[in-house]
Amino acid sequence: MTDRKMLFIVSDATMVGYAAGVLGEAGLDIPIEHGLWSNGVAIVKKHLAHGLEVVVARAGTARVIREANFDLTVVELPITGFDIIQAVEKAKIYGNRIAVVAFQSMVLGIEYAAKILGVEIGFFYIENAEAIEQIVCQAFSRGYDVVVGGALAAQACRAHKLPHVFIESSRASILQAAFEGLRLARAIETEKYKRTLFGAVLDFAHDGIITIDTAGVITSINPAAAAITKWQNAAGKKIGALWPSLELEKVIATGKEQLNRLDRINEVQIHCNKVPIIVNNRPEGAIATFQDISQIQQLEARIRREIYAAGHVARFTFADIWGKSGAIRQAVNMAKDYARTGANILILGETGTGKEVFAQSIHNYSQRSHGPFVAVNCAALPAQILESELFGYVRGAFTGANREGKPGLFEVAHDGTLFLDEIAELDYANQGRLLRVLQEKVVTRLGSDRVLPVDVRIIAATNRDLNKAVGQRKFRDDLFYRLNVLRLQLPPLRERKADIPLYAKNFLEKYARTNGQALGFRPAALQMMVEHDWPGNVRQLQNTIERVAVVNKTRLVNEATLAQCLDTTDIGADCQATAPREIAAITAALAQAGGKPGKAASLLGINRSTLWRKMRRLGIHA
Asked: Which tops the pLDDT comparison, 348 or 5?
């Protein structure tokens, strides 16, 4: 294995090859260089650029590298008892009086070897390289026969041609140092990972994080905390002086956590958790995590939008409202004015006049367009189910409830619009609950006592006379006044007859295109639609045109086809209003066909049996 984060520095040139062989046999590919003392510092500088983290060197070189204060770990290549015994055995050929010239850390325990080997040993410890020659000379002047030591001692002896023995590093000591260095390199890597991970957590956490030691001094503060507190260079300062109300020192004194506390810093209200840092069952500091409450509220709103409000989107805009008549343009302009405000809106209009289209358009034109648009038909659900849908419920609130509970539509519509269609059909009890939400701006789920703040604009719609319902005590007057802040009255189609041809042509083009056709209207058919009352308004007109696109057999839709479709859609008085026009159309077709029903049916675009049925119903004789 290759490990360029480690470096072996050997003090004797002859050891380079030997150490390489020892490490190679162990499967280790670690760079080895020859260096001594200050030369070792230069070697380290060269390797630092390549990610060097651990250096293995003999005592003197290791000492100098440490004193250079590099950001790395220095492992001292050990001298084992076996190394010392080998050196002393070699030195005995020169005499029994042996001077050991070395760093004290190199020769620990050598006195025991002296007793075993029967020699006299004198100790001359090195403190610095400059005094080495003087120490060597002093040893020989005192009658010692030979010097045993490291590379510096050997170098000084060679200079004066004096007998010496170099203490070599054995295979065992080289491998011991190598594996120790690798262990430390891995430990350093792990520690770096932890520091990087902790730093990333601190730097990118949305929470503000502050840690202190037992003296109350800030040891770390992350960017989020600095942004909330607006502190500069707070590390190293007393937390009590900067933020007395936090009382973080108390957590250290008591050893007990303090969770879900509210506090204030720089006019910012925060939600805070404080926990002691316990090491070996002793408090060694404390950590505080906190958030700006306004950010929590924004996050809550985003969660509601992205999770709860998924799919609750307004599709229509004011561009989807057709018509050039003064009545419809006035309604659109008024709706745009209402959209710019935040007040509740009550939309009044007959069935089919497009109340929800206006509600969606108002939402998309308002400042709440980024929020959800939630629609509910108050007449479509029983009172109890509607209550749970509007206000939500908690787990176990009632039999059959979702096991996890469910947010109500008020919660789902937070920061958006809630459209309550057919509001007049809301039962009296739910009217009271709705009123409380409008007044207090809070909602409580069924089965819960927790109050949830909601910011919702209400757009209500009805085709009934709410004033009359209030007088009959079927609708609460206080709720009516809450909803009736801004009133929008939508005109029925019969009051804007000039818009009928526009709707008819657009609808016909839409449905004909779906069927792969290109259709138009005869002028008489268009006039027939203009004269019709359309009690179902735009919705009835749309349904009629869809039916026309299906049954029509000619390129241009005639009066007979239109009369046939109106006959199947209209009831009551409307049928009576249509009958004279239908009689006239059939009579004209019979006259043109010379009284032949088959040819008349063809001219009308209907089959013969349908014509006979119409003639019997209308009392027409061929």
From this structure: 348
Nearest to 157 by CA among 126, 133, 125, 129: 133
Residue 138 CB contacts under 8 Å (≥ 6 apart), including other chains: 124
CATH fold for domain 205-293: Beta-Lactamase (3.30.450)
**Backbone phi, psi, residue 146, to 5°:** -155, 155
- Chain segment 468-510, per-residue pLDDT in tens: 999 998 999 999 999 999 999 999 998 999 999 999 999 998 8
495-618 has which CATH code?
1.10.8.60
Within the chain, which residue ranges are assigned CATH 3.40.50.300? Answer: 318-491
Q: Is the pLDDT of residue 573 over 80?
A: no
Range(s) of the chain covered by CATH 1.10.8.60: 495-618
User: Which tokens go with 230?
Assistant: 């607006």
Residues near 181 by beta carbon (within 8 Å), at least 6 away in sequence: 6, 30, 54, 56, 73, 75
* The architecture CATH gives domain 6-78+173-185: 3-Layer(aba) Sandwich (3.40)
Please name which of 178, 144, 145, 156 lies closest in space to residue 102, comparing C-alpha atoms: 156
Predicted confidence at residue 196, as pLDDT, reads 79
3-class secondary structure per residue, 201-240: HHHHCCCEEEEEECCCEEEEECHHHHHHHCCCCCCCCEHH
* Residue 109 pLDDT greater than 80, yes or no: no
Residues of the chain with CATH 3.40.50.10660: 81-167
CATH number assigned to the domain covering 318-491: 3.40.50.300
Helices (H), 275-350: 293-303, 326-339
**CATH assignment of 81-167?**
3.40.50.10660
Q: How many Cβ atoms are within 10 Å of 206's Cβ, its own excluded?
A: 11
Residues in the chain: 622
